[in-house]
Every structure is written in C-alpha cells, then in structure tokens.
Amino acid sequence: MTRRKQPTVSVALAAYNGERFIRQQVIGILDQDRPIDQLVVADDGSTDSTLDIVRDLVRSRGRGTELVVLEPGTVPLGPTENFVRAVRRSTSEVVILADQDDMWSERRVAAALAHFEQDPAAWIVAHDAQLIDARGENLAISTFDSMGVTSEEIRLLSSANAMVALSRRNVLAGMSFALDRRLLDTAFPIPPGWMHDYWLACWAGARGRLRVVADPSVLFYRQHDQNVYGAGSRRLRIRARRLLTTESDATVMRDRFEALVQRLEACDDVDEGIVDLVRGKRDFERIRAGMPAAPAARFVGVARQAAAGKYAQYGSNGTWNMIRDVIHPPKTEGTGAPDE
User: Fold this and answer.
1) pTM of the model
2) CA angle, corner 86, sides to 16 and 145, nearest 5?
3) Structural domains in the chain?
4) How many C-beta neighbours within 10 Å does residue 107 have?
5) Contact 49, 77 (CB under 8 A)
6) How far apart are CA 236 and CA 49, in angstroms?
7) How far is it, in rounded angstroms, from Cα 164 to Cα 143?
C-alpha cells in the first residue's frame, strides 16, 4: 500500500510586543516531532525585541523552516486583521494558528495532521487546551472546562448541526485551530465586526466541516494580566460582575449574523436548513437590538422571547442573557461587547 504524502504545514503567528513569552512559544513550534515547513509572523508594530527573538530562533533551530516576517504598517491592525494577513500569506496545505504567549507540546502538529488524515472532509480541527499561568504552571483546568462546555456541545460542533451550537456562542479559540487550505480558499474576506476564530468556525461549521477534539494535552493556553479565564468558584462572581457592567451585545450580533446570512445565501454548498437556522439567529438578534429603552417595556419584550424559547435556542448563557437584556438597553450602534 502506498503511504499518502504528508501535507505541508505553515504556522501563522500574530505578534505584538511579545518578548515576555514568545521565545518559549517559538521554541515549541520549531521543535515539533513533525517539523513545520513555514513560519509566518505578522507583527503589528512591536517596539521590543519580539522579531529579533523570532529570527534568532529560526536561524539556530529552524531545521529548514522558511521564515516569513510581515512588517507592521503605519496603523495598528488589531488581532483579527493581523492574524488574517498571516494566514493569507501562508502557502502550505495546512495552516496552524498560534498566539505569541501560549505553548505547544511537541505533538501539536502531528496530532492535527492525524485528525485531518482520519477525516478528509474536515476543514478545521480545533483542540481543547490546558490553562497555564504566567509562569507556565498548570492551572488544573482546561479551556472547555473553564467555559462549562458540555459533551453534547462538543458533539454538536463536530456534526452537520454545528451551527446549532455556534448560533448560541463560540467556545473555540483561534489558537487551537488547524486549517485546511480549502477553508482558506473560500472564507475570506471576513466581514467587519467578526473575530477571525468565530467566523472561521461558522464558515466550516455551516458545512459540517468543523471537528473539535476534547483532548487538551497538546496546547497550553497561558493566562496572564488581563487574559484570565474565570474558573471554579470565581466564575459566578465574574459572571455577576459582567452582568452588571457589560452592555448589550445585540447590535454586534445582529450585524455579524446579517453578514453571515448574506454570505451563506450566496453559497451552493450549504444546506438550506442550516441557512434557515442562521436566519433565525439573525432575527432573534434584530429583536434584541430593537428592544425599547424603557425598562418595563423591555422586560415585556424579553419575557416574550423567553416564552418563545428564543433565549434557550440562541442565547449564549440563557438566563444570564435575559437578565442582562433587562438591565441594559440595546446600543444604537454595533459597539456592544459580544457574548462569550
């Protein structure tokens, strides 16, 4: 039997003033059991030694890895656009995303490729990740556990009905994504207002081409400074604080899903039932965005949507979303914070 040729692999790494952690991440990327072919680093205006560290490491231990550095422009792009340019400059058949402050096990690339080989229909393979602190110490909880992701949610995300879960919330971090070239050939441009990970997950999920792996052993998601997940007993306090301080996300979600509906309606490879589901999500967010400013009238509107089962079907956190919508009126422009 002829062994199938292994695909080429690029890593798309977004960087900005990352000297604190990027050395450890790049060493892990370069020391893979299955070496990568290309490392694309998009720098968004670093003023520290980030790029010097990357260049030195590739020179000393790159094992033939091609390094492509995308220099910053005159205006900072932000994380989404910076990642997008790194991904679009990548030339391999599989592109794996990486944040500058996380860590990889030596099996990260091989694990992703094994899933693509087992399931040729997949466009994205996304892993759970182990949470670590700023020193790299294990926090004894994974990303999925910290977000309360259920086994049913994971099953849905990997099925033809992935949009049932994705229309409620996104639990997948871009740093966990391995992307097949077929996704990259069709998913761009990303509409304004979307984070790259949520958009790519929806683009693949709408076609049943998203695969989610609950194994957190190949990725380590670093929590530091403001980048901290609530875990254990802290989660309730964090939710309560966000409930009182975070404005409605309805206009953001309305605009996002309006754009997704328009793009999916122009495709001939998405089941009409999935498009209808996404239309339902858009319509729910339209109603939320149009809620009255007066608290009593808004309470009535929220109660009607709850009674119709819409918060259960489309809300990221069900009852929490209902309470927040009662407390906070919708913004007139799409600037509210998105659901997590």
Assistant:
1) 0.91
2) 70
3) 9-222 (3.90.550.10), 234-327 (no CATH)
4) 14
5) no
6) 39
7) 20
